[in-house]
């Protein structure tokens, strides 16, 4: 069984793209978690590093380009690698209602967004980056069922509708000084959600099963059942129907004001030998605010993907992991793996603190993809050009 953190294409770091293999009912499963930031060449990179011909699951943790572009490349090359399932975040679930409400009346959207209450939300977001209060009392009226043609048609028409909608909106607002803030809000929502729309439509075109996962806290008990999935979601639930909401503007604001990175889906690997095997904990860009670490048993010799590429903004995520690792039964043999992103400012917790709990490696210092093999003694690093650990940020220690 292998774990591989994929490295660069054309000498450019790609961010998070992790491949691993596991056993479920004595059958090998091949999984990709995120696809990094490379729109062309990722499929060939994956093949050259893994030799994989079929992926049982491709999971996308959130919408950022440095997690999604490689998945788009895979879907544009279906003849090279077969994909059985794609797991996607459902954070766009009510965007159709926004387009339906305002597509024919851009002026109404601008007027609604400029109401004193809404404008206050926008200003507050720009100044403080606060989260929108999710606890709005929406009335449940109807549902889209995820497994019906109705929802399938909704998702497959989203890109065309949205592109038309946003082009018209930009034409109306562009160059008008008093509409600039509104334009920024709309553009942010569009670019945030558009990658998931593209993945969903390409998957449907290729006949790949799509499974939707909604970011939310989950019950601890569900993780102690026998699972047949190679990945276990730690802060999301699979969704089979979604509510239609009567207040699309509030959804639009929630999409704007919530931090997409923090709402990243978090997973751990599954294996038929649950007690003895080193886990893989995929943190994505999350701050681990949904008690993800309480949902499974982190074991010695586990692999932890570094939260948000070691960003200074994710110190809280490290503290939550550290509380577990300071317990007496841990031997400080954690393997930290970082999908390097040069746009991220590294935090001191990544540069210094995580070394107390094991070895850290990154795709930048490795100069090639990071590879580990699972042996009788746990995860062992493949021989590579450099055997040294990550030294990113050493000049700032």
Automatic annotation (TrEMBL):
It comes from the Bacteria. GO terms for molecular function: hydrolase activity. The keyword Hydrolase applies. This is Beta-lactamase superfamily II metal-dependent hydrolase. Keywords: Hydrolase. Pfam families: Lactamase_B. Residues 22-148 form the Metallo-beta-lactamase domain. It comes from Planococcus koreensis. The keyword Hydrolase applies.
């Amino acid at each position: 069984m292998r774990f591989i953190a994929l490295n660069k294409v054309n000498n450019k770091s790609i961010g998070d793209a992790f491949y691993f293999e596991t056993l479920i009912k004595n059958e090998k499963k091949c999984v990709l978690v995120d696809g990094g930031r490379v729109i062309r060449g990722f499929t060939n990179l994956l093949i050259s590093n893994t030799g994989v011909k079929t992926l049982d699951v491709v999971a996308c943790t959130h919408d950022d380009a440095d997690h999604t572009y490689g998945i788009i490349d895979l879907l544009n090359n279906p003849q090279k690698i077969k994909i059985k399932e794609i797991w996607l975040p459902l954070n766009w679930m009510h965007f159709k209602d926004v387009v339906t409400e305002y597509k024919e009346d851009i002026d109404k959207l601008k007027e609604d967004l400029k109401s004193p209450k809404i404008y206050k939300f926008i200003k507050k977001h720009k100044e403080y980056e606060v989260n929108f209060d999710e606890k709005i009392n929406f009335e449940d009226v109807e549902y889209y069922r995820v497994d019906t043609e109705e929802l399938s048609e909704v998702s497959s028409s989203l890109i065309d509708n949205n592109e038309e909608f946003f082009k018209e909106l930009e034409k109306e607002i562009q160059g008008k000084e008093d509409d600039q803030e509104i334009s920024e809000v709309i553009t942010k929502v569009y670019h945030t959600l558009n990658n998931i729309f593209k993945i969903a439509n390409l998957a449907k075109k290729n006949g790949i099963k799509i499974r939707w996962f909604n970011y939310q806290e989950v019950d601890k008990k569900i993780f102690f059942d026998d699972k047949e999935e190679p990945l276990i979601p730690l802060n999301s639930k699979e969704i089979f129907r979604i509510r239609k909401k009567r207040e699309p503007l509030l959804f639009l604001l929630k999409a704007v004001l919530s931090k997409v990175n923090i709402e990243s889906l978090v997973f751990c690997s599954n294996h038929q030998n649950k007690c003895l095997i080193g886990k893989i904990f995929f943190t994505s860009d999350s701050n681990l605010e949904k008690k993800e670490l309480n949902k499974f048993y982190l074991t010695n010799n586990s692999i932890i993907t570094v939260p948000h590429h070691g960003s200074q903004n994710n110190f809280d995520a490290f503290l939550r992991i550290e509380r577990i690792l300071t317990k007496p039964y841990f031997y400080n043999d954690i393997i930290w793996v970082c999908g390097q992103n040069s746009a991220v400012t590294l935090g001191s917790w990544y540069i210094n603190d995580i070394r107390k709990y094991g070895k850290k490696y990154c795709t930048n210092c490795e100069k090639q993809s990071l590879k580990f093999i699972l042996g009788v003694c746990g995860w062992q690093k493949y021989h590579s050009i450099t055997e040294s650990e990550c030294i990113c940020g050493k000049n700032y220690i």
